[in-house]
Amino acid sequence: MGLSRLIPKGAAMIVAVGLVTATVAAGEVDVMAVDARQAADGSWTFSVTLRHEDEGWDHYADRWDVVGPDGTVYGERVLLHPHVEEQPFTRSLSGVAVPAGVNSVTLRGHDKVHGLGGAELTIDLQAGK
């Protein structure tokens, strides 16, 4: 008896799509959490927690960005070394100037092999005010 007789066609298709999605997303940087705080001068500090299966110097999470709704990059935190034994990990960036009137930003990760990708987080900067 073949597998197609055990699983309805629709269910088999859902399983296949789930497997393809997991395979495509493997190895990309996921933004897990963000803490955003505004300083007295109006600039922002972002503490971002990333998860990535760093493999060493040739494949590691090497950056995260603070991006506005229109795609403008307001800040970039460069990561200078792999975090093979430290997952997930958190790093901060201070002094980020977010223009007046911008109420949300998206945090996205980057790695040396896949570039941009993985889970992003969009936060409301007005939520704590």
Full CATH superfamily name: SOR catalytic domain
Instruction: Give me the Rg, rounded.
Output: 19 Å
Low-confidence stretches: 1-26
Beta-sheet strand percentage? 35-45%
Terminal CA distance? 62 Å
Number of domains: 1
CATH level 3 topology: Immunoglobulin-like
The first-level CATH class name: Mainly Beta
Give a structural overview.
19% of the residues are buried. A hairpin with a 3-residue loop joins strand 6 (104-111) and strand 7. The N and C termini lie far apart (62 Å). Residues 1-26 have low confidence and may be disordered. With 129 residues, the chain is of the alpha+beta class. The strands form 2 sheets. Strands 3, 4, 6, 7 and 8 form a 5-stranded antiparallel β-sheet that branches. It has helices at 3-6, 9-25; strands at residues 30-38, 44-51, 61-67, 73-78, 89-96, 104-111, 115-116, 121-124.
Could you outline the blueprint of secondary structure elements for this entry?
Layout: H1 3-6, H2 9-25, E1 30-38, E2 44-51, E3 61-67, E4 73-78, E5 89-96, E6 104-111, E7 115-116, E8 121-124
Antiparallel strand pairs: 1-2, 2-5, 3-4, 3-6, 6-7, 6-8
